[in-house]
Amino acid sequence: MEKEIKTEDLVKYEKNYSEDGLWKKIGNVAKKAGLKTVYMVLLLYYVLISDSTPKKYKAMIIGALGYFILPLDAIPDFVPAVGYTDDMAAIAGAILAVAKCISPEIEAQAKAKLKEWFGEYDELEIADVIH
What we know:
Helices cover 56% and strands 0% of the residues. The chain is built from 5 helices and no strands.
């Protein structure tokens, strides 16, 4: 049974967040987690570091990214085929909550980082993330 993660509950995972931990986690799991998950994580990261993002959103983003970093969460990341489904749900909930903070510049930053890490990719794979 999958445990539901509520967006407002994500702040309790703030202690698991660090920028170094985030980059390490992405580096370790990028291929397994997939392009879409990495794109959403990058969007949240760039919203987080934006000066125009309200503090109430930053706390939630830090919680969502902390949950993503945490290897032993509701569904441990090492479980084949489903290990990232709870992470994806937490990240997607945070994306929905902060969608109005995702500017075209933030989208461009995230896409540039995807291209750097994955090379050329099909934009259709990420088209439905925020539109």
